[in-house]
Structure formats: structure tokens, C-alpha cells
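Q: Hi! First time doing this. I have a protein sequence and I read that you can turn it into a structure. Is that right? Here it is:
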Amino acid sequence: MLRVGEHFERTDTGMQRRVNEDAFHARAPLFAVADGMGGAQAGEVASGTAVEILSAGIPAGSE
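A: Yes, that's right. Below is the predicted 3D structure, encoded as C-alpha cells:
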């Protein structure tokens, strides 16, 4: 079994974008990062939906 003691998450819009389109899920046993497609239409929706669907598949209390 993999045990995660500490983790750190951070996103940054960078110097070219106004909106951060990236999304992440950082709760054991799942750590996921979804890139928002760098300015593509609704990139933040795509990345948010991907992380939401992945995290919804983890049963409650499985940490």
C-alpha cells in the first residue's frame, strides 16, 4: 500500500493567460492534474469535468 505523508498543490496562470484553466484533485488515494488546454474554448470546463469525474469514482472513506 502506498502511503502519502504530505503533498503540495499549486497552479499558476503564467504570464500569458488571464484565467487558470487547470484543475487538480489532491486527496489520497487519487492525485490527478488536468491541463486546461491553454486558451482553447472552455478549457477550464474540460479540466474541471475530468477531475470531477475521476474524484467521483473514489468511494467515500477510501483514504
